[in-house]
């Protein structure tokens, strides 16, 4: 048996201080996992269990250089997030053992067509076109878990043109990393290569072509990229 055309290359991320690559299987994202961000989006953070949406694996690109401005939107917004890279699969994982399934961590930006997301909310339609578009997931190289001092606390921040817009701490996560891994494993069979975006602090906002977006997570990594021009 053979393919009718060559299969697409496997999406991947670099690994910090290594020539190896981390193959990406799929991307699962947690919504509204910081209380202040939940409030700024009009939700009650005290009553909502974790919920997930997805991006395609090929939405991944390095969080460096130029990130293209997408089509169909006049309101492209940033959301900085700690990213969890799964190295050992499982289902119904106990939170007490969840971190044993983590290969490493990275820093990602969940780019969002916010105007299209609001339209989807208003019409009770899926978020796919608002969240899962091409190049919607800039991510830094993955750092092995053993080299990350902590994911229970640490600064997470994002700046636009040098002005800090998001400035939080991982201790503010409503559902910490172990709980996120456990919750995801109850909905899907996690496998090596899965990425979990863990939510964003308050301060999300728009970017326009030419803006320089930078940020990081303490102990994990930092990034800087420029928003490209609006497509013709």
Automatic annotation (TrEMBL):
<dbReference type="InterPro" id="IPR036663">
    <property type="entry name" value="Fumarylacetoacetase_C_sf"/>
</dbReference>
<keyword id="KW-0378">Hydrolase</keyword>
<keyword id="KW-0479">Metal-binding</keyword>
<dbReference type="InterPro" id="IPR011234">
    <property type="entry name" value="Fumarylacetoacetase-like_C"/>
</dbReference>
<feature type="domain" description="Fumarylacetoacetase-like C-terminal">
    <location>
        <begin position="27"/>
        <end position="226"/>
    </location>
</feature>
<dbReference type="GO" id="GO:0016787">
    <property type="term" value="F:hydrolase activity"/>
</dbReference>
<protein>
    <submittedName>
        <fullName>Fumarylpyruvate hydrolase</fullName>
    </submittedName>
</protein>
<dbReference type="Pfam" id="PF01557">
    <property type="entry name" value="FAA_hydrolase"/>
</dbReference>
């Amino acid at each position: 048996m053979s393919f009718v055309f060559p299969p697409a290359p496997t999406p991947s991320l670099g690994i910090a201080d290594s020539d190896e690559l981390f193959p990406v299987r799929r991307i699962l994202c947690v919504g509204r996992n910081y209380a202040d961000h939940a409030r700024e989006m009009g939700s009650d953070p005290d009553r909502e269990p974790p919920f997930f949406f997805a991006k395609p694996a090929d939405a991944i690109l390095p969080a460096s250089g130029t990130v293209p401005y997408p089509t169909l939107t006049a309101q492209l917004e940033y959301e900085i997030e700690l990213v969890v890279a799964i190295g050992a699969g499982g289902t119904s994982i106990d939170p007490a053992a969840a971190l044993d399934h983590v290969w490493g961590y990275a820093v990602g930006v969940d780019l969002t067509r916010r105007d299209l997301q609001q339209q989807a909310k208003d019409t009770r339609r899926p978020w796919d076109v608002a969240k899962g578009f091409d190049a919607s997931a800039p991510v830094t190289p993955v750092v092995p878990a053993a080299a990350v001092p902590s994911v229970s606390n640490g600064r997470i921040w994002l700046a636009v043109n040098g002005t800090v817009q998001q400035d939080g701490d991982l201790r503010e996560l409503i559902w910490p990393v172990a709980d996120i891994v456990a919750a995801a494993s109850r909905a899907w069979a996690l496998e090596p290569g899965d990425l979990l975006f863990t939510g964003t602090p308050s301060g999300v906002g728009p970017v326009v072509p030419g803006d320089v977006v930078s940020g990081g997570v303490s102990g994990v990594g930092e990034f800087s990229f420029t928003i490209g021009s609006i497509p013709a």
